[in-house]
Amino acid sequence: MTATLTNVLIIDDNDMIRSMLRLSLASEGYKVVAEAATGASGVQMAKTHQPQIVFLDIVLPDRNGIEMLSEIKAVAPDAIILMITSKNDGDSVRHSLEAGAKGYIIKPFTVSTVSKTLSNAIARAVEMR
């Protein structure tokens, strides 16, 4: 983990997923500064809290997460965004990465999957800066 990249925003409409992510991230030393269950509140939380890392669900009740990537980047330009979804298809992965996501986690996930994906995303983001 990179010490300076610790503040996390979780945007997912599933309470259990948010809880699992929060616990997984806490065990790795990350701090969840905000959570949102909708796209609209997620964008507002990103603007307010300026997280360094964002976990973003693709399927939200009010928005498509892939389409939200640009909104999140506009209000929190340095955030590393990782998509989290049950959609395990090539188009979703490709569109997410093309839109600026640095990683992709398929539900259901394990703590080690979250940790490995996040570490890889941080490494890629640091290389690009």
Number of domains: 1
**How many beta-strand elements?**
5
| Helix-strand makeup class | alpha/beta
CATH level-4 homologous superfamily: Response regulator
> Can you tell me the overall shape?
globular
Q: Helical residue percent?
A: 40-55%
Let me know the average pLDDT: 91
CATH topology, which one? Rossmann fold
Query: How many angstroms does the end-to-end distance come to?
Result: 17 Å
Estimated share of beta-strand residues: 15-25%
| CATH class category label | Alpha Beta
- What letter string, H or E per element, gives the SSE order? EHEHEHEHEH
Number of helices: 5
Low-confidence regions: none
Strand order in the largest sheet: 2-1-3-4-5
Radius of gyration: 13 Å
